[in-house]
Amino acid sequence: MSESKRDIHISKLLSKILRHQAAHEGLKIDSKGFVRIEELLGNNKFKSFRTNKEDIIRVCDNNNKKRFEISEDGQFIRAVQGHSLKTIDSNEIYEQITLRDLHIVPNFNKITSEKEYFIIHGTSIKNYNTIIETGYLKKMNRTHVHFTFENNIQEDKVISGFRNSSKILIYINLIGLLNDPNFKDKVFLSKNKVILVSEDIPTKFIHHHLNKN
User: Fold this and answer.
1) Is-annotated flag, keyword Transferase (predicted)?
2) Is 127 within the bounds of a domain?
3) How many Cβ atoms from other residues are within 10 Å of residue 21's Cβ?
4) Are 144 and 187 in contact (CB under 8 A)?
């Protein structure tokens, strides 16, 4: 197996275990999502690829969506978003977004209206129809609904928190969402600039949607 293919396998395995399966694999994961690298390397799934610490660091550094973060002491690694593990504390791993500190969201200084800042959720046509039928944009099996921001879409690049295969783009006005008492403390920003909402979102908050070519 070539190094590039091996790295892809290691990256996918990191995502699966750090986001969803750490406890199932018997690995200790803290409330910030960190797992000790040496423990990961002792896991049979990583052993099957003869993974070493240098591999972990390289995969982390080269990931184009910046999915992973290594601790300052170099001993731990975590996924920066995308978790389904309920033990992860949003307030410890993410930065909370409120009406008072909207300046932390990407491209806030480019906003032309004080009342609108659109966040975008990509989905399939089938899933969009389900969203409309149920009346909610749901977290599904994750702890948050994932969004990107408008300028990311326009730049046509690899986007964190967004499937490039998405056919429907759902636009929600972040400022309107934060003005609702039910969501004022439910919105967060990850290290790799994914906007996260920790509650299912009623479709009344959908401003509009677009078909993605």
Assistant:
1) yes
2) yes
3) 18
4) no
